[in-house]
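Re: the 281-residue chain
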Amino acid sequence: MCLNGETILGFGCICPSFSICGIKTLICINTGNCCKPGTAAACFFQIISLRTVRNLKNNRVESSRWNLHRLLKPNGLDSGKGLIRFVKAIFYTTLLIELLGAFLSFPVFFRDYPLPRAIGLSLFHSSFNNSGFDVLGNGTSLIPYQKDVLLNLVTCALVIAGGIGFPVIFELPQKHFSWKRLSMHTRVVLSTTFALLLFGTLLLKLTENISWLGAFFYSVSARTAGFSTYNLGDFSTAGLLVVSGLMFIGASPASTGGGIKTTTFFVLLSGIYSAATNHSE
């Protein structure tokens, strides 16, 4: 419940949004995402870890301790007090993005539901936390809104934001969104995410009889969130293989999503390329 949105019964039917159950679930989801391995606490402990990562561009080895130190030090987040500030930053960032997502999703749900229900659905559906609950119930997920461009794009934007990771979210405004000034980690995350979205969309469109919007939505949602705008039971074997591959790769380090991580996938591809071409990394 606190991370991936899996249920054995229709959540939207047994746990209304504004019930005690619904409020507790919403708290569990966001608490789990802020405290899951790889986000706040894990970022702090990685500062003192001994693991190393290879800088593929400059052909040298740098410790991940130093990489995170460079990210956190400018804002004074590389100390004990800094950890508290970092956790607060994650909390406020999560709150801000989810409220923005709920605000943008509200007009869509308000067309079909009374005001209290529409507010509850908007808050629960704000998918920055990457927990793909079926808030409508009966296993429909977002199938009734498969042609709603606004809700599809808002959901995709929230899922992508949650999937790139908090270090990337914090670094982008710090570096004024300048590609040349971004760290190696952020550039790898963004470029790999873009490539997965592009090729995922193309492959799903080629293998399934769905719209381009649906193909893009699934290329986003399959990796980390699990929302559906088409019935997966109707997908072909090829389409399911594409979805499974995207699920396996997942999101990025220190994010609200799972998987082996985009950076791991990038390193694997780089290693395969180096071995195949007999070039050193």
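Residues 1-9, 37-42, 44-66 have pLDDT under 50 and may be disordered.
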